[in-house]
Amino acid sequence: MTAPTTPTRGYTASKEQLLARLRRVEGQVRGIEKMVEDDRYCIDVLTQISAIQAALDKVGLGLLDGHARHCMREGAAEGRADEMATEMMAAVGRLMKRG
User: How far is Cα 84 from Cα 6, in angstroms, rounded to an integer?
Assistant: First the structure.
């Protein structure tokens, strides 16, 4: 009997870099929490929120790139190209929505 294998994802090759970015974002969020606790100036807090949004956008774009280059290629090889394209465009739509 063979051991189960972990599926390969579009971000597998850059997983450590992705995790490092996410840890950095997590630290930025904790920094904003401290800024609010310390009653920092509103515009300074908003500036940090903007920086976090930009960092998360970069993570999202990286994941989309990996998905397009890896996951969609596999889906197309399995005859699921339309399904995969619809799924990806729905994800892009969710990423683009902002309050």
Answer: 20
**Which pLDDT tens digit goes with each residue over 35-82?**
999 999 999 999 999 999 999 999 999 999 999 999 899 999 999 999
Contact 28, 48 (CB under 8 A): yes
Between the alpha carbon of residue 43 and those of residues 35, 38, 67, 71, the distances in Å are: 11, 14, 36, 40
Q: In this structure, how many other beta carbons lie within 10 angstroms of the beta carbon of residue 72? A: 19
Rounded CA separation 31/24 (Å) = 10
Work out the angle at residue 55's Cα, subtended by the Cα atoms of residues 28 and 71, and round it to the nearest 5 degrees.
130
Q: Write down the pLDDT at residue 56.
A: 94
Q: Could you tell me which residues come within 8 angstroms of residue 12 by beta carbon, excluding any fewer than 6 positions away?
A: 66, 70
Instruction: Name the residue with tokens 């579009």.
Output: 10
